[in-house]
Amino acid sequence: MVMRKNMSNEAYHFEPAISSSDVKTVSSKSLAHWKGQERKESVAFDLGTAVHAHLLEPEKSLVRCGPETRRGKEWKQAKEDADKAGAVLLPEAEYKQSIDMAQSVLQHSVAHHLLTHSDLIAEASFFVTDPDLDLPLKTRPDGLLVKQGIAIDIKTCVDASPKGFDRSLRNFGYDLQSSFYLHCLNLEGLRIKQFMFICVEKEKPYAVCVHEMSEMYLRHAHNRMMETLYTIKHATDNEEYDTGWDEINTIHLPDWMNASGAF
């Protein structure tokens, strides 16, 4: 196993290994979508990146406050300077929002305990090889408490409630993400058994909830994740990256429409 503690996020993404995002793409879409995807940056992710930086690496000053809007020469120059420094630049209102969200997280007793623990390893990159599949894998957990056997992931979301995040877990493949992280970390003997999601809402009052998956849910997610890795292995060995869709798809009348008595 290779662990790199001071690797930039950009450098990590350019490393040629299978990531949790790859697994989620193949599972939710297809091999074709995974193979043909392009990495895109979006301002929609800037707020989440800033909250992560405030909570995990506050000493690095990775978040900068820019002008009021993302328009004009002043923003352009500030953005160029921030990019060179490896920092994220936010308009004034969003910068304050990111600070308020981070402070809300730290007011949550469990989240505070996890994120301020003296043993916390933040933003470390791990590179391993699955011995059964001979596939290079990589993972970058937001936080890691090795002695306690806990991996941590921070999510900025619309709904952090138990019911709301339960839906997000399935809709966005967070269950596959967590099982992939645990698989990579356990391959080399790091006995990580718990995966904790620290979720904070993007709107006031910036409500926070910490979630973990049950053992049964983790086992189910692990099986799905491994099935996806086998699919990726078969595709790479045979250089076959299709959608798996039928040439012609027949769309059938949904049962609920048929039951309405319209026909």
Task: Spell out the blueprint of helices and strands.
Blueprint: E1 2-4, H1 9-14, H2 20-28, H3 31-35, H4 46-56, E2 63-65, H5 72-85, E3 88-90, H6 92-106, H7 109-115, E4 121-122, E5 125-130, E6 135-139, E7 143-145, E8 150-157, H8 162-171, H9 174-187, E9 194-201, E10 208-212, H10 215-238, H11 255-258
Parallel strand pairs: 2-3, 8-9
Antiparallel strand pairs: 1-5, 4-7, 5-6, 7-8, 9-10
Can you tell me about this structure?
This protein has 263 residues and is of the alpha+beta class. The chain is built from eleven helices and ten strands. The chain is globular.
Count of domains = 2
CATH fold group of the largest domain: Lambda Exonuclease, Chain A
Order of helices and strands: EHHHHEHEHHEEEEEHHEEHH
Largest sheet: 5 strands, mixed
**What is the number of helical segments per DSSP (H or I, 4+ residues)?**
11
Structural class: alpha+beta
Using the coordinates above, name the CATH class of the largest domain: Alpha Beta
Please mark out the parts with pLDDT under 50 across 5 or more consecutive residues, or reply none.
none
Descriptive key words:
2 domains, alpha+beta, five-stranded mixed β-sheet, three-stranded antiparallel β-sheet, Lambda Exonuclease, Chain A, 10 strands, 263 residues, globular
